[in-house]
Amino acid sequence: MSFASSIRTIATWEISQSMTTMGRHVLPLAAGLLVLLVLATAFAAQSGVHMQDGIYRIGIDDPDVARIVAQDNRFTAYLDAGPALRENRFAYDLIVLDGEIYAADTEKGRAALTALERDYEAYVSYVAAKEPDLFAAYPLWIDLEYVKSELDFQTTQSGQRVGTPPDSRVPPAPSGPVEAATLPPSAMPVSEDDLREQLTGTESDNPLARYTGIFSEGGGEDRLQTPAELSPPLPLDSIVLIFVFIFPLYFTSQFFMMSVMNERVGRAGEALLSTPIRPSAIIIGKGLPYFTVMLLIAAAITLFVGAPLAILIPLIPVVLFFLASALIIGMAARSFKELSFISIFFSTLATSYLFFPTVFANTHVISIISPLTLVILELQGEGFTAMEYVYSTALFFATSAILFYVGTVNFREERLFSENSLVSRFTDFIADMIGRDHPYVSLFLLAVFTIPFVFMAQMMTLVLFFNIPMPISLILLIVFAAFIEEFAKSLGIYAIARERPGFLTAKNLLAGAVAIGFGFLVGEKLLLFATLAQITESIFGSILFLSLQVLWMPLLLHIAGVLITGTFLLLWGRRAYVPGLVAASVVHSLYNLYFITGALG
Amino acid sequence: MNAHRIGLVAKKELAGLSAEKTIVFAVLLQVFIAMFSSFLLVGLTTMYDPEALEGYSTATYGIGYAGADSPLIDEFERRDDLILHRMDLDRALSALREREVAAVVYVPDTPPDAEEPVKITLYLVRNDLQSSIINVKVKEVLQDYEKELREVRADRMTSFPVGLNFPESGNDENFFEFVYGLLIPLLVLLPAIISAALIIDLITEEYQRRTLETLMSTPVTFTEMIWGKIAACAVLVPVQAGAWLFLLGLNGIAVNNAVAILLHASTVGFFLILLAALVALHYRERTSAQFIFSTALVVVLLVVMAVPRNPLNLMVRLAVDTAGPVHWLVLALAAGGTVLLGWIATVYARRIGEGAPEIR
Q: Which residues contact A413 (CB under 8 A, 6 or more apart)?
């Protein structure tokens, strides 16, 4: 049987298999639930979300004012006479006396004040928009234009300011050539009625409108705004994208995970393994239906929200990454509850890796490390370049490919049906990749392969520590970067120490360390030059990827790190692994710290 | 049913959880998200509340001004953190591209009392942290200018809104609503959902691994075994939710009425666990059970959230101390529903248990 036809056989079998388990009993109920879901959504849309009802108490002496907050469920309004309100002022977050507003001096009081301010603004624009002379009520309109600037990451890092000489009263002169700019016309490009509609439309809608609005292209950029409407990019809007795009994809990948797990429960997959079909064909065949379904789901959602289909392109690596991890988790978990917990844990990690950078989608280049940022850019109608695509998806493609490879190599009876603990299963997986005939070549390749994961983890720490004040964030970054690298490098040695303790002699350890050190360096080089140039040029990057400046120094460092961990393992056995790792990380951090202080000082 | 034997089963399940170290993942998860909640607080407030950005508040920014003279110039002069430079538009934009200035405004020669509006063009650098701050600062200036223009054109207005005077609050974005209105109820709900998913795993695993026969050979009845599993999952809910509230406390977020919140969370958790147990008993296969349960969960949550004074809203109100005694009534209702569901589960489990020998 050819490779392609065996894939087709497996794929067909997988589809029919899942149809019979899900089949008759599940699908009718699922359809019923889907109808209920639509009804529930309609009910929720009609009745509104009552999550934050009544969190603020407001005391008011004037029924007209009370009408302003009447529509806002967050407020519980109490009408009372002025003196009574004044007396009980501590029972309220806000009180309104004769048009004067007093807020409690608490965080809650200030939040209530902000909420009331927004309601009041909406009310004022509601009144003003009915004004026969709109331009008396709204005399000022702003046309917001964005200019692209090339400096990006390096200039804004860590709050340093570049350019803009602060106190000079002399007009700054551009050093480069001056491009001619067209003067914007003073006439309004939009009709008065449209503006009126815009004013009443955007303010009075329910809070969900802002989130559905994220899909209508342009947002506030294309239209004229009143000064009150100007706002910096909102931080949490992109979480909606997670709900809309990522959760359905993740959800579907769970079926693949379960399908892999089901092969192992009660050795059900034994028959499959005894056929001459290659493991790679089995995995591709099993995964293909899910891959297709996930793409179709994403396409359906895209069409449904009316977004450009181009956003599917950055979602492909995400789909692959979910499937690859589902495969590994499905192969490694010992029980259903372990499967659940690992997959929940993994999904949180993956979601935050995807989500948090997008918070900065319009403010910072670092956001590009998440493919979701490309989705946002595409939705905003800006699009992305091929370079940006490579930059933000390379890690996802690389890690998925490696995970699939690890899965394929280990898709064998003795791995799938073993009942060992999770850690030992993972070391088994790794040990399997280290060939007996060419251990050093394998260690070298293993080190190369761990690089994408190391980068992903380090990117995560970069995102995490990005906001902590400067010296602390640098130190944390140095320590974590060192630890992650040492951990990754030690994996091969640890797996060997566990599986083939006899192999771990002083001579072999030295040779292995050299192989790993070389592999690490080569992997770093390859990936960095391909993709991450922008980040590496910043000061944070110089910490993470310090090792690139001089070649032999980092090589020695990498080798030394493995040697330290390895020596601990050699002398005191596996229990010394963690102390060894810590020792190696300390050395690594000190080395980085020395170079950074040297570079900064 | 024998409480002692239920306890034994529950203890066995909990021991199994800790033996597999899966609970470690749950703890890691909590710590990880707690890290992010502080990230959200620290990071986002500094990002979007310019006053909180230490290094920036003292800095001054150059603004390029192009076009006709206008009272806007005086408005800018009043700020000491913005310095206005009069320039040609093309020179100003080139300077902006090189970041010699932080923003450029272009003002047309529309007189303040003209029939038509004044249309100002504001140029900012895209993809830039600084632009977010400039945006806020320029917005304040423009709002003042708008007020001034409104006064000039006041005689053309016909109706006036009720006047309200707001105290100077510094206009700061704070995350009170996000933390108390969204984060806390979600964090407290999460353990309930996790436990519900867990009971499905525990029950379907017995079926799919065919370990029921061994269990049934012990004196434990089927119903007792199911209740043991339910008890194990239910215990985890208040423990985890309590841990959340404690972690939030460590992050400086004080939560009122923690005990009442935990009571609500436990009831909601128990309800969901029983629901999940019923689904699992019906399907006896993980994929189907999890699929149906998670879809049903979304439906239930949507409906619940659309009802005023739902348990989630009450948890929010309890956390900010505006709940009032009515929450006890809702708690009693939810508990009543849970007891009913518990009775159904018991009857269903007993019926399955009687037919035990021929479980699939």
A: A270, A273
Question: How is residue A261 written in tokens?
Answer: 């797990």
Write the pLDDT tens digit of every residue in A236-249. 555 666 677 888 89
- In this prediction, the residues of chain B whose per-residue pLDDT falls under 70 are 21-24, 26-27, 29-59, 126-130, 132, 169-174, 251, 356-360
- What is the total residue count of chain B? 360
User: pLDDT by residue (tens digit) across A570-596?
Assistant: 888 778 888 888 888 888 888 877 776
| Domain range summary for chain B, segments of one domain joined by + | 3-44+174-358, 51-156
In chain B the first and final C-alpha atoms are separated, in Å, by 24
List B120's β-bridge partners, or say none. Answer: A142
Do the bridges between strand A75-79 and strand A56-60 make them parallel or antiparallel, or are there none, so unpaired?
parallel
Given an 8 Å threshold on Cβ–Cβ distance, is B165 in contact with A100?
yes
Report the C-alpha gap between A361 and A238 in whole angstroms. 9
Q: Which residue shows structure tokens 């009915």?
A: A130
Candidates A140, A162, A173; nearest CB to B117 = A140
Q: Are A443 and A523 in contact (CB under 8 A)?
A: no
**Which contacts of A408-412 are long-range, i.e. CB under 8 A and separated by 24 or more positions?**
A408/A279, A408/A280, A408/A283, A409/A279, A409/A433, A410/A331, A411/A273, A411/A279, A411/A282, A411/A283, A411/A331, A412/A273, A412/A279
Distances (CA, A) of B197 to B192, B205, B209, B344: 9, 12, 18, 19
Query: pLDDT tens-digit profile of B11-43?
Result: 888 888 777 766 667 667 666 666 665 555 555
Least Cα separation, residue A523 to chain B (angstroms): 28
State the pLDDT confidence band at A445, using cuts at 50, 70 and 90: confident
Which of A35, A65, A106, A149 to mutate to probe the B interface, most B CBs <10 Å?
Answer: A149
**Separation CA A517–CA A519 (nearest Å):** 5
Rounded-to-integer distance, Cα A433 and Cα A405, Å? 9
Q: What is the dihedral of CA A44, A46, A52, A53, to 10 degrees?
A: -130
Contacts of A598 (CB under 8 A, 6+ apart): none
A533 C-beta neighbours (distance < 10 Å), count: 12
Query: Residue B55 and residue B39: Cα distance in Å, rounded?
Result: 19
Contact B122, B105 (CB under 8 A): yes
Nearest CA in chain A to B294: A251
Homologous superfamily (CATH) for B51-156: Periplasmic binding protein-like II (3.40.190.10)
CA distance A126 to A105: 30
Give Cα separations from B285 to A26, A258, A543, B20, B77 (angstroms): 11, 10, 49, 21, 72
Q: Which strands, in side-by-side order, build the sheet including B82-86?
A: A140-147, B118-125, B103-107, B61-67, B82-86
Inter-chain contact B47–A337, Cβ cutoff 8 Å? no
Q: How many residues does chain A have?
A: 601
What is d(CA A33, CA A206) in angstroms, rounded to the nearest whole number?
A: 26
Q: How does DSSP assign A407-445, residue by residue?
A: HHHH-SHHHHT----HHHHHHHHHHHHS-SS-HHHHHHH
Cβ contact B41:A235 at 8 Å? no
Distance of CA A228 to the CA centre of its chain: 31
- Contact call for residues A558 and A489 (beta carbons, < 8 A): yes
Q: Does B127 touch chain A (CB under 8 A)?
A: yes
ipTM exceeds 0.90: no
Closest CA to A295 of A273, A329, A320, A272: A320
Domains of chain A: 56-137 (3.40.190), 235-429 (no CATH), 434-601 (no CATH)
Cα dihedral sign, A197-A199-A201-A202 = positive
Contact yes or no for A120/A68 (Cβ under 8 A): yes
Distance to chain A for B154, nearest Cα, Å: 7
* Cβ within 8 Å, pair B132-A51: no
